[in-house]
Amino acid sequence: MKSFVTGATGFIGASIVRELLENNHEVRALVRRGSDTSNLSGLDVELIAGDILDPPTFNIGMKGCDTLFHAAADYRLWTLKPEDMYRINVEGTVSVLQGAVNNGISKVVYTSSVGTLGNPGDGSPGDETTPVSFSDMVGHYKKSKFLAEREAEKFAAAGLPLVVVNPSTPVGPMDIKPTPTGKIIVDFLNRKMPAYLDTGLNIIPVEDCARGHLLAAEKGKPGEKYILGNSNVTLHHIFLILSEVTGIPAPKFKLPYFPILVAAYLNEGIAKITEKEPLIPLAGVQMAAKYMYFDASKAIKALGLPQNSIELALRRAVDWFIEKGYVKRNYSSKNA
Question: Per the confidence metrics, is the pTM higher than 0.85?
Answer without folding.
Answer: yes
